[in-house]
Each structure stands twice: as C-alpha cells, then as structure tokens.
Write a structure and sequence with these properties.
globular, about 10% strand, about 50% helix, alpha/beta
C-alpha cells in the first residue's frame, strides 16, 4: 500500500472511530464482542504505539470472531465482506428507541428529534462500513511484515466466509432486501424511512430473524426455530376451501382488521398443523410470525402475550393437538386470554389451535344430568362447552374419501416429477391404502415419499 494511500486510509479510520463515539440511538450496534475486536484492530492500526505483534494478534482475533459469527444460527446478509455483513445485521437487529417507535407507531410516528438523531447515527456507521476487508488486510500486512516477515502471508481477507451452501431459508428475504439497500447507498442518512418501515413490519432481534419461534418456558422464553418446516399450501391438496377460509382471516389480521381466533378440527393426518405452518410460510414476508406453545405451557399464555404487545410483527400463538381431560383445568387460562381481562389482549395476537376433538374439554354422560355429586351439573357442562365457543372461526378438516385420497396422491406425485402412468399410480396408491390403517392426506404423502425414494434409488 503506497504511503499516500495509507495516510488517507488512516485518516478515514480515525474519522470513523471518532464518529462512533457520538453514536446515540444505535450505540448498541457496536456493543458486542465481534464489534469490540474489530474496533480494537482499527484502533491498533492507527495507533503510533501498537507493535506489529499487537496488530497481528488483533487481526487474528477479528478474523476469528467474524468467521465464528457467519457460522452462527442467525444467517448473515449476503455480502462477501464479513465485517460489512455483520454490521448490517447488527443494525437490522438493534432494539432501540427509534426501532421501538417504528414498531409501535409506524414510520410516520417517528418523532422529529429521533429522526434527526437517527440520520446522524447512520452517517457515523456508514463510515465504519466503508472500511473494507481488503484495505484492513493490506494495512495489517504492511504494519506487521517489517518486524516479522514470516507473517506476510499469515492471513487472507475476511471475504466469503459463509458456508458455500448456507441455508438461506433461515433468514427472511426481507432482511436481504433491506441490507442490500443499505449496502448500495453511499449516504445512509436518507435511509431513516427504509429502516423504520422494516422495523414497523418485522421488528428486531429474533422476531426479525425467525418467522417461527417456540416458547421454552418462563426461564428460556422465546427461541427462534432455525429450520422450520418449509411446507407450502400448494402441497396440501384438496383442502382449498378450508385454506381459503383461513387465508381470508389472515389477510384481515395483517391489515389490522377484526380477525378470529381459530380452531382447526379433524382426524389425525388431515393436514391441520401443516396448514397452519404453511400459512405462516406464505405470509412471513408480510410480517406474520408463529409462536409454538406446548399444552404444558398454557399457564404461561398471559406472560407470552405481554412479551408480544407492541411488537411489530403479527403473531399466531399456535397450540397443536389440544384437548383436555375432565380433571384438567389449564383450559381456564386459555379462556382468559381468548376473552380478555381488565387488560385487553394485544391486537397483534391471534390464537390458533388444532384438535381431534371439537369439544376441547372431555365431556362425560355424567355431565348431562346423570346423578352425580355435582349439584350444578348444567353449569359444569356449559363451562366445558364454552371454551370452543370463544373461537370465532372453526374449520373442519374431513378425512378424504377414496377419490380425494387418489387425487392428493396423484398431484403430489406430479409435483415431484415422478414418472408413472396415472393408472399404475392409482393402483399402487390403493394397494398402499389396503396395507395401512385409515385413509388421510398424511397417508397419501407417505405413499408418495415411498414412491419417490423407490424411483430415485432405481436411478442411482
């Protein structure tokens, strides 16, 4: 690196480090271990006191931290420069007064003072973004080589550190779009609205990274699901009427219109759970999130709802395969959330449950007027029946008849490009049905899975 270019670069780094001291709203972007070690390297490179050994150590630590970050569960924006990708991810994930105003009040609700400070913070962070991997690599080698020639080829620039086949489904495409806008703009102060709109729809942190999250209990809280089921509505064949009812409800919900809590009822294998997952996959880019809650954690529903209040995305709290025995009283916590208490339920939350039993609480004949110890038996019966009545939309998933089963199997085989005549496929699907108990969409999928494996194996 020529002396003049090096001097200009040193001044650029000094300016970026000085500007970082003034970060206010976005101060948290640099408040983590990776940012600390990179900034330590920058400081060492412009210091007159730092030895070649100290700079070498600082570069190695920065490279290691960035390499570790790209292998983390939360995938990076698709930029070659690991530091630039990391900086963009930190900006998009940062929870701060600006992002919180955007989540609660939308882009038009940002106060003028917050907007003005945001412009200045973005301008400062752009200076750090301008310091590229190639420049830092060359500066490090130039600083280290005179005292330790053996380290001349000790490193490569931190470019393209991500795995070759990174699982990009972990990262919402909206992250890619917003990060690309930031990467392409030379002046970031004009991107306040872009980031405000991003946060207003997708929020920050785990809600922005994951469209499926799981409640792990009071201590662990919400955890993002890195590899959610990729099922799509197009794979759930012959249930178009049921899907249309559910999609209409989601569309209203996303527009902020009144929408219903939902019970999906039907026999096992009819696609109830898969439909809920597919709905979230379909609408994730518009800000829909799934919060999976196990039945054992129903008592935590009020705490979960509190965490979701005033967050930007819209949430489906999903309880799969729900039913209660007559002695279980946890359903009362669900009733409270459905009906609300003195504290209104968050407007960005709906409850979706699947069940094999339309009356969610087991009802005995003794509940219907038979002699029992319960003097007010009718009240008991009405209490049990009242849970399902609190769901405004109840969608039934019926077991398919034979022709519907064959239609599902045929269309699934076509989607997977399985070359088999219609007559042979139907005959084999019927033979599969005779060998298994019951008939369902799940059985049709299992048949096609087996058929695909057989076909692909034969081609090996």
């Amino acid at each position: 690196m020529e002396t003049h270019i090096r001097d200009v670069t040193i001044e650029m780094i000094k300016e970026a480090l000085d500007a970082a001291h003034g970060l206010t709203l976005l101060r948290g972007v640099l408040d983590d271990e990776v940012a600390h070690v990179v900034c330590h390297l920058l400081t060492a490179l412009v210091s007159t006191d730092a030895s070649g050994a100290k700079i070498a150590e600082a570069y190695s630590k920065a490279f290691l931290a960035l390499a570790t970050s790209v292998n983390s569960e939360a995938a990076m924006p698709p930029l070659a420069d690991a530091w630039q990708a990391y900086l963009l991810m930190r900006i998009l994930d940062d929870s701060n007064p600006w992002s919180k105003q955007a989540e609660m009040y939308g882009p038009t609700g940002i106060s003028p003072a917050i907007r003005a400070q945001a412009q200045r913070d973005l301008r400062s962070l752009r200076l750090l973004f301008n310091i590229t991997a190639q420049v830092l690599w060359e500066m490090t080698r130039q600083a280290v080589t005179p005292t330790n020639p053996l380290l001349h080829d000790a490193w490569v620039p931190w470019l393209d550190l991500a795995p070759v086949q990174q699982q990009q489904q972990r990262l919402l495409a909206t992250h890619d779009v917003t990060s690309q806008q930031l990467a392409e703009q030379e002046e970031w102060s004009g991107l306040v609205d872009v980031l405000s709109e991003h946060w207003a729809r997708h929020g920050t942190g785990a809600f922005a990274h994951y469209h499926v999250l799981r409640w792990q209990g009071q201590e662990a809280g919400l955890q993002g699901v890195a590899y959610p089921d990729p099922i799509q509505l197009s794979s759930l064949i012959s249930y178009e009427r049921e899907q249309a009812l559910l999609q209409a409800n989601i569309e209203r919900f996303l527009l902020g219109l009144p929408a219903h809590d939902v019970v999906l009822y039907g026999a096992p294998g009819t696609g109830k759970s898969s439909t809920v997952k597919a709905l979230v996959n379909t609408y994730a880019e518009r800000g829909l999130r799934l919060i999976e809650v196990p039945k054992a954690s129903i008592k935590d529903l009020p705490a979960i709802a509190t965490q979701l209040r005033d967050k930007a995305p819209r949430f489906l709290i999903f309880i799969d395969d729900l039913s209660f025995e007559d002695h279980e009283t946890e359903y009362k916590a669900l009733k409270v959330l459905l009906e609300g208490t003195a504290e209104v339920r968050p407007r960005n939350v709906l409850i979706y449950v699947t069940t094999n039993r339309l009356n969610l609480v087991r009802e005995n004949f003794s509940d219907r007027g038979k002699p029992t110890d319960d003097v007010h038996w009718k009240d008991t019966m009405e209490e049990k029946n009242s849970l399902v009545a609190r769901f405004g939309l109840r969608v039934t998933f019926a077991l398919p008849n034979q022709e519907r089963y064959l239609t599902i199997a045929t269309e699934l085989a076509q989607q997977r490009d399985i070359s088999l005549s219609t007559d042979e496929l139907r005959a084999r699907a019927l033979a599969w049905e005779r060998q298994h108990v019951g008939r369902s969409g799940r059985m049709a999928r299992q048949f096609v899975d087996d058929l695909e494996a057989e076909t692909r194996f034969a081609d090996l």
